[in-house]
């Protein structure tokens, strides 16, 4: 079933330009060990609409992993480098680059990452981009630096989705860069929007809209603007979650009397019941390998997290500490479970190493967690406040994303883009 409703604005590509960024990032805390890196201004970077060195600095500082040293000068990718000088300034690595405006109006961005200890080159990139993608190129360079120096893929060039409640009659599904910049409205309506979830390829978002005066699950293509009703069964349709291959979704339906988990193909066909309990089963999340589903159930008397086969069947309990555990999320490597637990009178974000069962409290006053695609950070909504926050999985690095308009909730961190 395909349809377009005038109440909504569809398609990021259909909205002229990006709206002014409403999200501001504040950084608290750093990693236990920081990598000292000097970042020089790129030669002639002023010709581009985005200052490459500034974007890169902001990304690396936000990660908490790097101690950024301002080079205080511009150095191009062809400049002669005195490695001993930079080593004496405490920099283990140096970033240099240049921007050249082409005759067709595009920008050639070149960069090099240099090892000052070994006096060698670690990496280099050269790409030509339009003005629209200038900031994205800065994020991609920061991703490359992060990966080369930590061994983990960077997630600065990924995107986030969240719901912005501007007023009681203005709900917006917004998509932005991971740093909150470049925000665009993907959908908008007078009734609540909840539970956005990215498809694994980053081209679609599933979400729940109340525009039909009941919760209905939609999937929207962010390129074409087309959307489909995936589930509009009798009763409530909620909590969509994608399988890792993007072929299916798990949803929560109450069509048979109480909320249970169902599987459905990505085109809305093939509905099949997966859970079968006398309690409420909801908030499904596929495991990283797609073989299992983690979910919330009150079958033991209170809300706890369980795990079952992705094809349904018997479930095993996962959480045992605390009487209220909800909102399970699984890291991309399948090693870590994040969830919200109510303990000592507060909602807190916890993470569990699934191999050892060891738990760690990462943040107090948290709801609705979402892992970064590299599994190193978790974004969540701040309980009782109109904002989002990010914490590293070791709890050391914290960021707060605040907005000067509306109430932003329900974050979903998008996947790596190919």
From TrEMBL:
One GO CC term, this protein: periplasmic space
Gene Ontology process terms (BP): cell division; protein import
Name of the protein described by the UniProt record: Tol-Pal system protein TolB
Job description of the protein: Part of the Tol-Pal system, which plays a role in outer membrane invagination during cell division and is important for maintaining outer membrane integrity.
Family stated for the protein in its record: Belongs to the TolB family.
Signal peptide bounds: 1-21
InterPro entries registered for this protein in UniProt: 6-blade_b-propeller_TolB-like, Tol-Pal_TolB, TolB_N, WD40
Residue stretches making up the TolB N-terminal domain: 24-122
One Pfam family it belongs to: PD40
Compartment list: Periplasm
Top-level division of the source organism's lineage: Bacteria
Principal subcellular localization: periplasm
NCBIfam families xref list: propeller_TolB
Swiss-Prot/TrEMBL keywords: Cell cycle, Cell division, Periplasm, Signal
Complex and partners: The Tol-Pal system is composed of five core proteins: the inner membrane proteins TolA, TolQ and TolR, the periplasmic protein TolB and the outer membrane protein Pal. They form a network linking the inner and outer membranes and the peptidoglycan layer.
